[in-house]
TrEMBL record:
Residues 14-194 form the CT398-like coiled coil hairpin domain. It comes from the Bacteria. Residues 60-87 have a biased composition (Basic and acidic residues). Residues 204-238 form the C4-type zinc ribbon domain. Gene3D superfamilies: 1.10.287.1490. It comes from Streptosporangium amethystogenes subsp. fukuiense. InterPro entries: CT398_CC_hairpin, Oxidative_Scav/Glycosyltrans, Zf-RING_7. Residues 146-177 form a coiled coil. This is Zinc ribbon domain-containing protein.
């Protein structure tokens, strides 16, 4: 392949700009905020699951408390009804009177037992509600911390994307100075090796950092100035400059 020496030298500018794009892409992928956001999101998800479990327990206890309170009310109403019968003097039979008094005493004990159950459930529900409040506060705090990290990530993304646009604009200008066939070869090599062209400096390829043999240097010296040279070691395009040591 043949290409004007000036066009070949422009490959070094292109390679430098492509390296800048690679650095920006790497920076975008490895922002510390990304790992922080992932870690916070995982913690938020775990706590959200715990919140659901705690809220379910609290809801179950609320229903259990309502049922227990309804049982207390039912027993209390029966006891009040029997007490009214007793107080009204409607029951005259000693046997019926004793039976009624016994039932009232039994209902009173039953009411006391049920009220103890209600109190126990209320204590458990209070504990469950406190756990819900604690978990919700923790979840919201983590979500707030994540939102701050997301803002920092977005600001960094915006800065990186702005730099990327500027570099891409410069790259487009450099491409105009490079023939299509040489540009295509460069793109192919860049895809294969990450870097498509490197400077020959002091008899060494700066792409693979290999010092060329005397025979190879003599071959390059004998080549015409517009011949496109490839490194025998890494196969990248070798660009000759005043620093090549030829």
């Amino acid at each position: 392949m043949k290409a004007a020496p000036a066009a070949q030298k422009r490959l070094l500018d292109l390679a430098e700009l492509d390296s800048a794009l690679d650095r920006l892409a790497h920076r975008r992928r490895t922002l510390p905020e990304l790992a922080q956001i992932d870690e916070l999101s995982a913690r938020v998800a775990r706590i959200a699951t715990q919140v659901i479990a705690a809220e379910t327990e609290s809801g179950d206890l609320a229903r259990e408390q309502s049922k227990a309170e309804a049982d207390v009310d039912s027993v209390r109403i029966r006891a009040e009804r029997d007490q009214k019968r007793l107080d009204s003097g409607q029951v005259s039979s000693p046997k019926d009177l004793a039976s009624l008094q016994s039932e009232i005493a039994s209902l009173t004990r039953r009411q006391g037992d049920l009220e103890e159950v209600v109190l126990e459930i209320m204590e458990r529900r209070e504990t469950a509600d406190a756990q819900v409040a604690k978990l919700v506060a923790e979840r919201d705090e983590l979500a707030g911390t994540r939102a701050v990290a997301e803002d920092r990530r977005d600001a960094a993304f915006a800065e990186i994307d702005k730099e990327k646009e500027e570099v891409q604009s410069k790259r487009a200008e450099v491409e105009k100075d490079i023939p299509a066939d040489l540009l295509a070869l460069y793109a192919k090599l860049r895809e294969q090796f990450g870097v498509g062209a490197a400077m020959l400096q002091g008899g060494r390829c700066l792409g693979c950092r290999t010092s060329l043999s005397i025979a190879e240097i003599n071959r390059i010296k004998a080549a015409s100035h517009d011949e496109v040279i490839r490194c025998e070691e890494c196969r990248r395009i070798l660009v000759r400059t005043a620093e090549s040591g030829l």
